[in-house]
Amino acid sequence: MYRTHTCGELRIADVQKEVTLAGWVQRTRKMGGMTFVDIRDRYGITQLVFNNEVNEELCEKANKLGREFVIQVVGTVMERSSKNKNIPTGEVEIIVKDLVVLNASETPPFTIEDETDGGDELRMQYRYLDLRRTPVRANLELRHKLSFETRRFLDDQRFLEVETPVLIKSTPEGARDFVVPSRMNPGEFYALPQSPQVFKQLLMVSGFDRYFQIVKCFRDEDLRADRQPEFTQIDCEMCFVNQEDVLNTFEGLTKHLFKHLKNIDLTEDFIRMPYSDAMKFYGSDKPDIRFGMKFVELKDLTTDRNFVVFDSVEYVGGICAEGCATYTRKQIDALTDFVKRPQVGAKGLVWVKCEADGTLKSSVDKFYSQEDLKAWAERFGAKPGDLMLILAGEEKKTQKALCELRLEMGSQLGLRDKNVFAPLWVVDFPLLEWDEDAKRFFAMHHPFTAPKPEDIALLDTDPGKIRANAYDLVINGVELGGGSIRIHDSKLQHKMFEILGFTPEQAEAQFGFLMNAFKFGAPPHGGIAFGLDRFVSILAGLDSIRDCIAFPKNNSGRDVMIDAPSSIDNAQLDELCLSINPIQK
Amino acid sequence: MYRTHTCGELRIADVQKEVTLAGWVQRTRKMGGMTFVDIRDRYGITQLVFNNEVNEELCEKANKLGREFVIQVVGTVMERSSKNKNIPTGEVEIIVKDLVVLNASETPPFTIEDETDGGDELRMQYRYLDLRRTPVRANLELRHKLSFETRRFLDDQRFLEVETPVLIKSTPEGARDFVVPSRMNPGEFYALPQSPQVFKQLLMVSGFDRYFQIVKCFRDEDLRADRQPEFTQIDCEMCFVNQEDVLNTFEGLTKHLFKHLKNIDLTEDFIRMPYSDAMKFYGSDKPDIRFGMKFVELKDLTTDRNFVVFDSVEYVGGICAEGCATYTRKQIDALTDFVKRPQVGAKGLVWVKCEADGTLKSSVDKFYSQEDLKAWAERFGAKPGDLMLILAGEEKKTQKALCELRLEMGSQLGLRDKNVFAPLWVVDFPLLEWDEDAKRFFAMHHPFTAPKPEDIALLDTDPGKIRANAYDLVINGVELGGGSIRIHDSKLQHKMFEILGFTPEQAEAQFGFLMNAFKFGAPPHGGIAFGLDRFVSILAGLDSIRDCIAFPKNNSGRDVMIDAPSSIDNAQLDELCLSINPIQK
Fold this sequence. Notes:
CATH 2.40.50.140, Gyrase A, domain 2, globular, homodimer, 3 domains, 17 helices, BirA Bifunctional Protein, domain 2
């Protein structure tokens, strides 16, 4: 060992001990005849002292140390005269008697500090230096802990972690696959898994009873801030369970993680909100319920007053922003601009202020009387000082816009504190979504999701109305996980493929092995998958999952540090029987 | 929940409880007016009883159950009259009052028993049924436990599990990469990692101090029984350590795993055997030291007796098989055939028997006197009753053949008990291997391995003689892990690439980011990677790693269950800018 202690562990009780430390030079300061060096490792920072009067040569050596040099020192722990209360080692310092430079360092391209001067691109290129910064490393430490505690909890609950294959078969349903050419089977390809869905269901058929895996998954999609071509799932499946069993088990996991990672007790049962309510009251299947401001529908109170905008639309609804009657013209104009942005898509914004004196003032005073507005205020539960914000239009689009407005108001009012966590289960998702372009149904979750037993009769009459035994865990407006009870009956599974527009031959070619497996005693089963990257991001209060991934890719799917992807040798291509087509730019 | 208890947990103390069980029908037996059904799940088997006199309809239903039907029963726990001592639930049975068939099953293509009638190919095709068999599931349970205990141990030792990317960059050094075409970067490819080597070294540069990961790795090689295109490593790296620190840490892990998985205390320190000794005494860099039978060299004792075979060769050596002087002519002929097999490659076998009366009888009596043979026997330490087996030829080849002969004799003499574990560290590997075809050195371990400091001077004079700070963990003749102290100096790393025949441009293109990283304060570091599949196999006493992989591939790299790899749509190929070349069969 190059050290007897880490740079984070010496305390006042260690005074007079001779110790050896190794680490990186955080900074050096020369003060009179003394040189102070802060030595850093993963565990902390310790102050080293060199005295020019005691050992001039050694002190000279210390003076030459640059930032990020790797050094090893031998010295004696002493009590500091001026203590630093901000760090755990702040009561002591090391009087150094020996110094070895283990490796020098060029000046790093940005400062290795909690707040660095390095821009995003530079930090990604030198990610190995960015990872030295405490906040970045803390995210990865949290990630380690989340994985570890997840495994501990699930192991306790008799789940077995089983590794499923990475080189699997491409399936056209779902997102785009990454594919891997097979040299031994020329012209054929493996696919990288978008999830181990089929394998975990097979493990249930195998009687593994309770399966989990923390596993890399892959999707060849165009990227966004919260998407990476490779991402990590906590993938779980149980047999002989109904929906309630699955929710209870993973509510338990979620509470365990909050307790052990954040020391937060989520004592309440998580709310279970039907998808239809989520859409009606929050305009989203992942509502942020850290704050209220639920949608209020006004269509019936707004008609027949000659206001064409409201009369002509399907839906009129709004939210009540508490205490915002003081908003200025400018602020309201800004909100109007906000809702009219193409990403939000509303045509305009109607507002009603409840003044302190109880009168109501609105942007539609021309059309609506004080009595009308009072009826609205009553429905909103608005008090003097509140501001009602109202949108109108096609129902789904308007709810979506209202959702954005609600989130914006939540942010403006400071109601979206990153240290407050509001979990809920969204349940009773529709089983199918009609795609107007493809003129067919798509599975909202995936084709293996079971319909609610009471809705099965609708399969032949009105498939679009069927609700699924499917559920999402949502925290603070982020979908952290989703799952369902699966179909375990091969006839029903066949029927589902039929509804989804598979010919029997296509179904057989793609999923024949699964339907075959169902013929040999498939138990009732269901499960869930959590997005681990997102889970860590929520717990760490990050804006992008990229910040909790050691070596992320950029929005073009590139790793700019190692410069991947890259071209390969022609010999490699020949072995794989592949040619690259001329590329049209 | 479909059950109140599992099929493995009811005991005599549960008598009179009303319980609900769910599971698979293992077998049904009709005896007089009674029907007995064994219900099975992952946790065990419980006997169900149906009485025709009490409920004829129910009993009739039970009589119709087929093997592997999935059922749910409600009933009362009763003490059995004839107890089954072989199973933990053998003292009780369930008097069933309600039976639900959750799913029927076709007759499985092979029996779901510990000893099945299904052949390899059939079992792989229906792997989900094969996994129902207790011994197969037990291997995967052991695998889960090994992963879990590894994580627990390493977490305790402050290792952080960090996920490194799967979509990385292809490098020509090492085995063949699997590649993944990039749609977003047409004509370019990712590679799947053969190991996270470079990333774990970067994490050391990042100051992560102690890293591990249980991670899938990929090699596009022609397959053997103990090779799979995807395999799992326990990948570890530490900084500020020397070789001894790494060995001690992972000796600790190994002992922890034996204790917690097999309840075996490996109390002794693991032997550290230099590579040169391993080759000299066992003809292998992974000696099986469950038994002795070390090689004895005889060249000096065999010359000048006009035996051309021995006189003309570089090496004469043998082993002493205790108590085998009774081997018949037929047995010895079989051994001769064994060593002459092309895989072993010896030209012939010389034998000397130490008869009970002390006389020596050999296949070379014509050339060697009793005195000569006595001198041999003395060197072998042979006692009356022993058999000396001697090979001659070129040194390395003969040692390799002798190694095979030794292992064969070990097996014949029952010295290779799967329940005995003999671990050792092989150390001081050569840094480089000369490749006669390529006329250049290759790294024996990989190009990042550090030479022993005392051998660094040989870099310029005699690189082939340099020993590396590299080590392998070997148990029972199987290499379970290997690692090294790494180069952390960019100049030395450059020098290594030069010796390995890289031009500076090639080195820069392939590993520029690593050498760049080394310029910014790289700490001394080293690590190890264990083959998890092999580790499980050794602990479970398996002959092939395939038996501890849930969904393995066959020798052509195919998953015969899901039928992968397979062809993909032309649209997918077009998106990737790829064409498949006409395939020459």
